[in-house]
Amino acid sequence: MESNRESLLAALHLPSGLDDEELSRSVSDLVSLAVGGTQSAKVTLQELADAVRKYQGTEYLEPLTILPNLLSSTDDHAQELVRACGIGSSAKEIMIVVQEAIEELQWYYHVGDEETQEKPITAPVQRLIGLNVLCTTAIPRLRLGKRTPFQLAGPIVLDICSLVQSAVQDASQREGRLLLREVACLVRALQPWASASASEDDLGQIKKSLRDLLDATVVACVSSIQASLSVREFERLFPRLIVKSVLQKGWEDGQRVMREIQDALTILGTFPQPPGPKSTSDLIYLAHAEPAVPLSLASLTQLHPLIVNSLHRNVATDETLFLLLRLLAQESQQSDATEIPPDIANSLCSVLSVLASTHLDPFMRHLNLRLLSMVLSKVHPTIRLDILLRLTTDEEFPQMRGAAVGLLKEVTLGALSSPNCSMEPNPFASPTLLRAFGPVLFKTSPPNFLTLSHTREELERSLELLRIIDCLSFLYVLLLRDTKNRTGVRDLDSIVSVERTFLRPLRLFLDQCVTMQEEPLMPLLSLQVYVERVDAAVTTIKGTPKSDRYEGGA
Hints:
Blueprint: H1 2-11, H2 20-36, H3 45-54, H4 63-71, H5 76-88, H6 91-110, H7 124-138, H8 149-167, H9 173-195, H10 200-220, H11 222-225, H12 229-237, H13 251-268, H14 280-288, H15 299-313, H16 317-328, H17 342-358, H18 362-376, H19 381-392, H20 398-416, H21 432-441, H22 456-461, H23 463-481, H24 492-516, H25 522-543
Helix pairs in contact: 1-3, 2-4, 3-5, 4-5, 4-6, 5-7, 6-7, 6-8, 7-8, 7-9, 8-10, 9-10, 9-13, 10-13, 10-14, 12-16, 14-16, 15-16, 15-17, 16-18, 17-18, 18-20, 20-23, 23-25, 24-25
């Protein structure tokens, strides 16, 4: 309408009376100036986008002129103009721009070592997002002619797929989520378009190329999803362990993005079902599935290679830990809790112990320790003992040694509280416990740690000092809780041995530290407290008549 045209001219501060060609040229000039951010720009991209939308000015957008500038802009309103252009401009001209933009990105990322790049390409993720927008809006409007849908769209989809991994390396969370959304939109647009005219073989090819694009984008952008799956599941399973929620801000948007991805998968008819998942992308889809796909502990056998691979590579960690929580939280169906095969348990504990030792986030370290505990609860006691012995002597990750003592305490208390009905004694409620762990827990590492000279700073940072405190805590609890002396911890020989090799050197060490330190350190105070607690427990046991020293006799 003429009134819209005049309103558009006024909104863009252009003289009235311009013909269509002059108006289109003027709009192109305004876009160029606005994208460049020059002071001479009469209007901003926001004002341009608002005016084009309000006064139906799409017909004055020249795709060959304005799209190269708009694709390289990080401004949100540039994307709005890209979308408007894709919807209303010549589909053929749009695809010329798309092909040129793809070739520019391909050259940039695949340039040989002998060639030099004049300058870094600007906004690669935004370019890729814009290309998806243009393909979503323009490809369904193209005339097929003698071409099949795959012949027309397949090469473009494959080209975009080949660029995803390189382009998103430095993508922000917001950019990654935007790209995921636009790829989902592209799939939802092209699948029904192709179905309308493609042969069965051609449709199969286009489906495969679209699924490959989805897979590549989801894996490349998985760190941008941040839907806090594992945190939400952990808080659901262990509400008493939560002091303050650590949910990611804006996790809901990540959840919404994956719903759009799931819609795209549903349209393709390729949603993975266990035991089907065979790739990292399948693992991600499975974790975000709504409603949740039923999983049993038996599914761990099929998912185990993907889970361990993802954790080793630090890819889709949130999704992988979430699935592990779901799998391991299953109620035990066997009284002896041996559902997890030893090889799977060992590999899981190896990778989880690394995360529990090295992850920068304290909550994630705690979560991985809980997962370790859950794995240990579902293996045979002898396997449990071997794993804990390995963890309490871990040389590569000394942080794990102290944490493993806490896991050992948990397992031991569980064994002591269970009735001894089995024909095979539980090693954690028998003398095997001290035979296996006594030489590990009741000596220092290195052996001369207590006689070495330590600065105050060294003691403040000492992991060994913290481990010793954990060992004393374990000993104290064992002395109190093993009232039937099933482990032999209350035997006089055991008490004398621990006193000679562990407690006495600790007291001498504490006496020296007290005289040397002006102000006591918190670790030393904790050490002092636990030494006194153990001494008190031992004194009580020694003062008890032998016939009453433990319930049930010797």
